[in-house]
Amino acid sequence: MRHLAALLLLGLSSSCFMSRSTTNEPLQRAKLEQLHPGTSTAKDVVELLGAPNEVIQLGTRSAYRYDFTNLKRAGFTVILFTALNEDLRADRAWLFFDAKEVLTHMGSTYEAAKTEYALPWEETHGK
Q1: Residue 124 domain-assigned?
Q2: 127: in domain
């Protein structure tokens, strides 16, 4: 009887959980490919991509940062013990402008789609 009570207690006080959270809208590679250094302007960028997440002044030049983050979390709880695994990845684009607000160069990474759920004892492929 004590074993049954212990199993019931363990069963009622344990759980697995998964969650996902994102920040901003995903970056669209096709939209970024429409921008061309030497001809696209800061106005063109904002009309195409919307307001940047961050604007940095570099003397008379500037840089715009756009990003999207994806966090997947999985865990396991038994009574008072919780094991947790998180995988956070981001898509990020930096666009640089000269003093006349003409795009000079840009760079981007696309990693958010590779985010994985994994329990704490499992490895994700990106780590």
Answers
A1: no
A2: no
Tell me the whole-structure pTM to 2 decimals.
0.75
Residue 2: both structure tokens together: 């004590």
Angle at 24 between CA 34 and CA 109, to 5 degrees: 50
With contact defined as beta carbons under 8 Å apart, do 108 and 91 qualify?
yes
- In whole angstroms, what is the distance from residue 24 CA to residue 51 CA? 11
Question: What pLDDT digit, counting tens, does each position of 64-115 carry?
Answer: 999 999 999 999 888 788 888 999 999 999 999 999 999 999 999 999 999 9
Length of the chain: 127
Say if 123 falls within a structural domain: no
Per the structure, the count of domains in the chain is 1
Neighbours of 91 (CB within 10 A): 22
